[in-house]
Amino acid sequence: MEKEMEKYFFEAFNGLDRLAPGSQASTLKAISMFNGSKEHIKILDIGCGNGIHTMLLAQEFPNATIIAIDNHMPFIENLNSTAEKFGLSNRVIGKCISMFEMPFEENSFDLIWSEGAIYIAGFENGLRDWKKFLKNDGYLICSEISWITNTPSEKISAYWNEEYPQIDTIENKIKQIESAGYSYQSHFVMPVTD
C-alpha cells in the first residue's frame, strides 16, 4: 500500500515546477534571512524535488557548493540536467538520498535548506537529526506547516491532526526550535498565493 501511495504522489507532481507551497518571492525572502558569509559556503538542500529552489540558491549564493538530495531519481536527474544546462554542475550536485539515511560528515554544512519537506521527517525530528550536519555557526532555513489561527474549524483541525499530528502554532514551533538547541532568528508566513 505504501509503494502504491508513493506512486500516486509522484504522478500527482509530475510536470509541475514547484512540488510544495512556495514561490520565487518567498524563496528569495527566506534566503535574505541568512546572515552568514555567502563566500565559499556549503549548502545541503534536503527534499530538493526537481530543484526549482535549488537553482535560486545557486543564483543567490554564487560561490556556494550545493548538495541537493531527494529520494526520487527522476527529480534528481532533472535537477542535474538543469545544473549542467546552466553550467552549474561543478557546484550544484543532486544526489538520490533519503533524508532518513544521510551519509554526510558532522559539522560539514554552513546552511541546511528544506523548502516544503521537513514535515516528512517531522519538524522536531528534522531539527534534532539534522543539527549534527551543521557547522557551529550554521543556519537551518525551512518551511513548516503551522497554524496561523488559534481557532481553526473542526473539520480543518481534524484533517491536519490526522495528516500531520505535529502541526502547531508558530509560537510553539519557535519553542521547539529553541528546545532543539538552535538560536531562533525570524520567520514569515507565506502568502495565500503560494
Instruction: Give the CA-CA distance, first to last residue.
Output: 31 Å
How does CATH name the architecture?
A: 3-Layer(aba) Sandwich
Give the helix level as a range of percent: 25-40%
Number of domains: 1
Q: What is the residue-averaged pLDDT?
A: 90
Q: List SSEs in N-to-C order.
A: HHEHEHEEHHEEHEH
Superfamily (CATH H level) name: Vaccinia Virus protein VP39
Low-confidence stretches: 5-13
The dominant shape is: globular
The biggest beta sheet, please? Answer: 5 strands, parallel
CATH third-level topology: Rossmann fold
Task: Kindly describe this structure.
The chain has a single domain, classed as Vaccinia Virus protein VP39 (Rossmann fold, 3-Layer(aba) Sandwich), CATH 3.40.50.150. It is built from eight helices and seven strands. β1 (42-46), α3 (52-60) and β2 (65-70) form a beta-alpha-beta unit. With 194 residues, the protein is α/β, with parallel strands linked by helices. α2 (24-31) crosses α3. It has helices at 2-13, 24-31, 52-60, 73-85, 118-121, 123-130, 154-163, 170-179, and strands spanning 42-46, 65-70, 92-96, 109-114, 134-142, 146-147, 168-169. The longest helix has 13 residues, at 73-85. The strands form two sheets. Strands 3-2-1-4-5 form a five-stranded parallel sheet. The protein has a two-stranded parallel ribbon with strand order 6-7. It holds the Pfam family Methyltransf_31. Pathway: Lipid metabolism; Phospholipid metabolism. Keywords: Methyltransferase, Transferase. InterPro entries: Methyltranfer_dom, SAM-dependent_MTases_sf.
